[in-house]
Request: fold
Amino acid sequence: LNGLGTSPHPSMLDEAEWTRRQEERARKQQEQFKREQERLDRERETKASKILSVDDLIRLYDNHEQKWQTLKTGDGFGWDSFPWPMFKRPSEPEDITTTLVSAYVLSPHSPSPKGPKDRIKDQIKRWHPDRFETKILPKVVEEDREKVKSGAGWVVRSLNELLSRNYDD
Reply:
């Protein structure tokens, strides 16, 4: 030691400290980026839902309920057959975000008389892999099966995040 209480190898400490600071900076940038993306998603969804009138929203919810009935009895479904819980049909599984699912499930225009927590739970029951992958997924055409399975996974993760974020006791 040089008498100042520092390591005889200051460059090693400096390098370790520099690395730690860089990692911390990168983590903060990622968090900031994620918050900004969520804000932009909310903004986009708000604009999209404003384009739809209340009557349009009610028709959309009715259409989704009819699709669920068809899914129970029909066969040969593809990606576009599904009533994805969003106001605008996603093109890819990655288009399904917690923000967009939240806007749909928690909308004040939802026809469900249930409270928000119960609406989330009802959707989880529909999309949960145990039920979805045994009862619905086998009815999907082979070429869309993986995409639909992935989309359902994004939906249920979003719903679980909503439930835990807002209703964990």
Observations:
- The first helix runs from residue 10 to 51.
- DSSP finds six helices and no strands in the chain.
